[in-house]
Write a structure and sequence with these properties.
Two copies of one chain form a homodimer. By secondary structure, chain A is of the alpha/beta class. Chain A has helices at about 20-30, 45-50, 60-70, 90-100, 115-125, 125-130, 155-175, 195-200, 225-240, 275-285, 295-300, 310-325, 375-385; strands at about 5-10, 35-40, 55, 105-110, 135-140, 185-190, 215, 240-245, 290-295, 330-340, 345-350. In chain A, helix 9 (about 225-240) links the parallel strand 7 and strand 8 (about 240-245). The longest helix of chain A is centred in the middle third of the chain and has 22 residues, at about 155-175. In chain A, about 60% of the residues are buried.
Chain lengths: ~425, ~425
Amino acid sequence: MSKMNAFYAQSGGVTAVINASACGVIETARKHKDKIGKVYAGASGIIGALTEELIDTSKETKTTIAGLRSTPSGAFGSCRFKLKSLEDNKAEYERLIEVFKAHNIGYFFYNGGGDSADTCLKISQIGKKMGYPITAVHVPKTVDNDLPITDNCPGFGSVAKYIAISTLEASYDVASMCKTSTKVFVLEVMGRHAGWIAAAGALASTDDHEIPIVVLFPEVKFNQGKFLKNVNAKVKKFGYCTVVVSEGVAWPNGKFLAETGLKDAFGHSQLGGAAPVVAEMIQAKLGHKYHWGVADYMQRAARHIASKSDVDQAYATGKAAVEYAIKGHNSVMPAIKRISNKPYRWKIEMAPLSKVANVEKMMPKNFISADGFSITKKCREYLEPLIRGEDYPAYGKNGLPKYVQLKRVMVKKKCPNFKIK
Amino acid sequence: MSKMNAFYAQSGGVTAVINASACGVIETARKHKDKIGKVYAGASGIIGALTEELIDTSKETKTTIAGLRSTPSGAFGSCRFKLKSLEDNKAEYERLIEVFKAHNIGYFFYNGGGDSADTCLKISQIGKKMGYPITAVHVPKTVDNDLPITDNCPGFGSVAKYIAISTLEASYDVASMCKTSTKVFVLEVMGRHAGWIAAAGALASTDDHEIPIVVLFPEVKFNQGKFLKNVNAKVKKFGYCTVVVSEGVAWPNGKFLAETGLKDAFGHSQLGGAAPVVAEMIQAKLGHKYHWGVADYMQRAARHIASKSDVDQAYATGKAAVEYAIKGHNSVMPAIKRISNKPYRWKIEMAPLSKVANVEKMMPKNFISADGFSITKKCREYLEPLIRGEDYPAYGKNGLPKYVQLKRVMVKKKCPNFKIK
């Protein structure tokens, strides 16, 4: 293939390390200037390709690109946008080809989760279907850890580390207070369908130091009686208890906990609040004083306490994506393969994108304890290496991390305007 | 004074660095064995003195005590318990004297906020009023930064650092998503009456990188119209906006945005849930998609990202308290005196406890911007040094901080049982 430019975009909910993957892509492309010209990043993901809003990453300094490795969020902007099938929206594919052609783009790197893998797969096929050859490689990213094939997903290790540490720290806090005040702390974490993030909360309890933690997984139907009994037993034994609840936990009728019950002072329903619902339930039925927190964006943006394993893997998948592409591999994704647990060793392997797209990986049954409220030894062995190691960003004199900002020099438009439907 | 033992206790809501003060007290006492015998710590604060549940800190190793410096929460247990006046509950004071006498306790170190300063003051007076001489020194602690006299309060710098960083990180996140998804992120922080913690959120926006942040202080009466207009203007200009709301923000009629009806042991209303109220309001009136988080205990337990200034000052106040006591100073508190901003220099000065007890320090008017939604340059100059520097705990192979646990060897009881009313 003659030398062509590359398109890179970030998709879906961002993470603490998606920019580390971007760093891997851009730095590796810069090392292969014989094969890849410039890397153009989509402003706000694939939307940037449709609207021809392309950020010229060649205008960013080496230092800035290196700084992406320790900057959270999506530096180029992300989007929640799923391409329809070729049959349903041919105009969008024609537009993409128009933009790719205009800017001599022959490589497509898409950094996202399951939906994005599907988009990437569709793009990889336009060569055959529409006569525009493009090499499309997916770079895995999701805090939810729900991609198949890959042993784990970049983005997850850091949110898991944040949740494990926050659960540990908040548990220390409530243990201090429980004699006369708060006895139960409820922490709400992300994970609409898969309980991987909630599972990380259980890591705070170890053989050296048992901490009474009850985890509510979206994979387990919520049984209020059993749950309250478990919490109460822990409060009796330890004086306190910490509950880690996934936002996706649902009643047996399928309704999310967060949709029910609690109203604010003005009678408005509080949405997205499983934690207050669980906390109020504990107060009403058991009479224990509670506190609750909702980690929301803080958990997935917490680059300040990113897992070193995670940062390394995010970078490595970005790097491998470029290496695959210049070797001509299309419709693939770099996946993480675990070689051993002790010591933790891993490598990057090529996975076919068709097996990744639109498949959601739930917690295996043997990762959830028999009572449904904790994790098994097997799960702990899987999770612990993923939160291992610290990778601190540099700090300024103002006490804040030095996260980079891009110049965002836009590539001159060459195509007519295009309206996204 | 002949050699006597010391009593140390932690009081009120704990912090990321109250154990660093404990470390300062115990390590300094160990250096003055000619003056101070053993340090007995109250199990669950002053309650431990009343129930004669005393933890013998001499049984803890040097390494464990040193490890307290980087362990969050109250290692000895804290309590929300306010001694009544001598007139109202003489029995409790007589009981304290009984326990102090039985264990040869001549020093009383109380580590807490405004209410605790009051308790400490009362104890310091029982020598004169009830004929039991005891040297009582207060060690300042509160995340709320609302103690008078001292320039700032140990515990605040770390929560401020956590909130500034969380605001920065979540703002990066929402900036990535705003094109097609979330446009406003609302973060709820602690601070019932004083807006110091909320103010720290504004530090995330700097001269180098302007971030659209709207702060809601408890000191400023909530004006819904003005607030929504401000948020909307920022969304228009930047594409997104971050709101930092103090739990203590109230409507013009005085009712908290987040009233739950529950009260704590001091009779303060228990709050929680201003964020969802604000977020719903933004959705209903402006139509912007939102996310919200509640930092709750995570913010004050976040030892993993403690401010170095704060850890140093927490230790220094603990150390100074012991040094004051062995010099015979009673009814005092080590206060932090700021010597200069650039470079930030400070020292410890002695303050009379009578001027500290029961006084709450609000944000000065010239620290809040004219529109009521941000901080002034003066405030920034005050706050920045307090979040400066990182003081990371050691980490284990399991990816978690190595927080210490005490052996908690209890001192043998010598007094009859006592029931707290």
